[in-house]
Amino acid sequence: MSKYLIRPHHMLCMQFFEGKGYSDGFVASMAAIKEKLEKEDPQVEIVEGTDDVCKNCPHNMSGACENEDSVRQHDKRVYDKVIETVGNSAKWSSITKAIRENIIDSGKMRETCGKCQWSDICFKN
């Protein structure tokens, strides 16, 4: 079983991902990672900076996000709401449960997502 490196805001994005993204390569990679996470329920390490999802992102500039300042703010808002529940490493199912309980079901999506360009997808679901 694989171990995945995921930055905090991607843990939330995965809950609503529906095949849209920055590029075809990014979308294909995100879909494959989401499928493996849901099928295998692997251990996930919550990381700062670029992660397994970022590998195929057109904003990944040699291992650094060109929008890092903005992305770190998204990460912090998610991290602050789930870290006490799961720690820095947990099974994907535990992370999904913590995100549902502490962000989605508790009505904290808007404050957590901020001005994310993809939030329309999440809010319609």
- How many separate structural domains? 1
Strand order of the largest sheet: 1-2-3
Cα-based radius of gyration, to the nearest Å: 13 Å
Structural class estimated from helices and strands: mainly alpha
Strand content: 5-15%
Kindly report the average pLDDT value.
90
Q: What is this structure's SSE topology?
A:
Layout: E1 3-6, H1 8-13, H2 24-40, E2 43-46, H3 68-86, E3 89-91, H4 92-104, H5 109-113, H6 119-124
Parallel strand pairs: 1-2
Antiparallel strand pairs: 2-3
Give descriptors for this structure.
125 residues, mainly alpha, 3-stranded mixed sheet, globular, DUF1284 domain-containing protein, DUF1284
Q: What is this structure, in a nutshell?
A:
The chain is mainly alpha-helical. The chain has helices spanning 8-13, 24-40, 68-86, 92-104, 109-113, 119-124, and strands spanning 3-6, 43-46, 89-91. Helix 3 (68-86) packs across helix 4.
Please, could you describe this protein's structure?
It comes from Eubacterium ventriosum. This is DUF1284 domain-containing protein. It holds the Pfam family DUF1284. InterPro entries: DUF1284. The chain is mostly helical. The chain has one domain. It is 53% helix and 9% strand. It has a three-stranded mixed sheet.
